[in-house]
Amino acid sequence: NQGVDDAQRWINLAWLTDVHQNESASMFPLNRAHLVSLVLVLGLPLLVFTSLPDDCHADLPREVLWNASYDYGKHGLFDESRLCFELFASIYPESIKAWCLLSEIHGRIGNFDGALIHARIAARIGGETADGAEGTFLLANAHMSVHNYGLAKQSYYRAIRLDPKHVNSMVNLGVVLGNNNDFAEAIPLYQHALKIKPDIMAARHNLGSALHTLKHHAHALAILEPLVKDEPDCFECLLSLGHALSEVKNLERSKDMYKKAMDIRPWDADALLNYYHTKQQVIDWDERDFLFEKLKNVTEQQLSQRHLTTVGPYYSLLSPFDSEQMLGIAESHAIRALEKVRYKIPFLPSSFGLELEPPLHRLRIGYMMADFRHHVTAHLLQTVFQRHDEERFEIFCYALNKDDRSAFRRKIRESVGDDHFRELDRFTDDAVAIQVNGDLVDLLIDTDYYKSRLSILALRPAPIQVNFLAHPGTSGAEFVDHIIADRIVAPPDNALFFSESIFYMSHHYQVNDHRASYPIRPEKTISEIRRKERLPEHAFVFCNFNGLYKIEPQVFEIWVRIMHRVPDSVLWLVNENNESNANILRQAEVRGISSSRIILAEREDFAEHIFRVRAADMFLDCLTYNAHTTAVDSLWGGLPVMTLPGWNMNMRLATGALSSFGPASETCVRTESEYEEIAVALAQRKMRIRMRNRLYAEWRLAHGGKEEVTLSNMEDINGNTLPNRTGLEGRPLFDTNSWVKDFEGGLRMMADMSASGIGRGDSEAQFYAGSGAGGKGRRPHLVRAHQSDWGPRSRLF
How far apart are CA 32 and CA 198, in angstroms? Predict the structure, then answer.
């Protein structure tokens, strides 16, 4: 009985007041007689209190009761504060402020239904006057707490209408709008709030954060830097300044901000994640294992409580989470994406959320991403659009980023036409979804790296929604039907760790256009390239062109051991930033490798970088987040790629590329010791020449799928004979036309399945494309993986 529990609490307080009356009067603002009177108000039988003194019926003055209610809340005694305010409100029901504070207290203790009820009472008492604004504001806050964003938005607007100077409503309305990526309306609200009350911290912080989100980093820093000086103990301000400093590559200061935030709240997961990740970026490996273990435990706790995980889908790729954890992380963020827009779904046109209906003729395909710019994803996709069969497919592109006037964006726009390239960089999630739905798109392909706009897909603008390419992992979303993969990066054994059904390409799932866009250019010799890149002319050059933040201590130890055993060798890495560069050189020196043997490559345009790769001798892969595009670049440059596959998709990317490369793919190894031994062996001159010959050998898949090195002609996807080609150009990995035909076959399968009512929501289904280059294709079939069928984890050995 809640009344009995509450009465017992007041009895305990009465006893504590007696015991501690001379020790801490401020903590117990009511005297013993007042507390006993509160017990009686709860209506318990009088016989319970037969032993209590005669002063139990003392009156409770209004001021004393109000101060008691407020002081208990101030000291974090929310249950006691709630009881006092409930008593106060029952005696003085016309007090709007009492009902408002009751609503706040219920919100603090997690009783959001109670918060809603008391806020409604306050709003009704206030009516259509300025006094009703505070109750309406608290009503909106309660709606926010239970993710009713539509009702929250309406209530905040009403509060502002009742009181045009209610700055708290302006600030929180900006938060709701920001959740829908509507910063064009949120930013003016923050600015208006600051005109009314210049010192309101929340408005200053949220304005800086919104500008940072829009990538106006200089403006964001101009707001956040003074804010942190004014509010040095503001946890959120320190975090946001850390984010903004990270974006402008001031990583040491960013790390300092996160450390200060951790000092304020040592238990906070946001501070922990950002501090850990920034230490990764600057190659600061101190406490790395301890911090990751702490982060993993926090993530496990959040998943067990079904809370949104602090670690997002992107960050999960950078650390060795297991497959179940990565699925849980993705699912929690997909659920949040749906919650943000759920209130909009009933008001969408009836054309949303439908299945495809036969007959299916020319399919409309939409590619959506925020990287139609000078970016690796656009670099990979740049000629795919023009290779689609125009008679069977109509292509749309949805650009969620501003026009950077890059050659990649211009080339893609020209290939689909201006009337099919949608500029949506300032569109809200629902506005993007309405555009996609209005274009009658049949299959929407999401190529977003960070999975930050999943709310668009949550609205179901297209009958079929597909996860592809940029983010090597599951979306975790029930509203994404399929993921494009291959049997190496996502083995059938791992199907249960994907929320989508898996569509398997015949060869590697990542497309590239190296053969057409970056043809081999013989105008410069390797010696000339080495001189330009400051590489020793006769040394053996190991390389890795991933961002330095992907390098973990475990793999760096292997690289150092290899370099000790190959004395005439150097390691060619990318020039990241001053802090990271200095720290990676220091890590080498500590392990006995002179910093002069670490060569840092300056950033180059894609074409120039791909051309210079051939100056190296071997690519050494990372373990947790494999090389992907950089591995393909290296194979195109004629380099062997040394890789060790792990259990997650992001740990098997280079292995997937090697699987469709053919001869010279033997550098996919089983153990760390094999990694080291084979790398050292290939550094010997005789083995190096043998590997080079295999890299440039022509090959095809003979009957039965067995690898056959041959000088005979190859066949295309339709079985037609093609003229002889050099070894690299003849590999399936670089056969873009065959990849597109394979991909189109998969899109057609998805459409057929949708029209037949198969596939949506079937996360254990996999289906296969045609046999790709050199074959005539085959009918699709479904394979279901169940827990009882699991055997050893699939590997490419």
Answer: 44
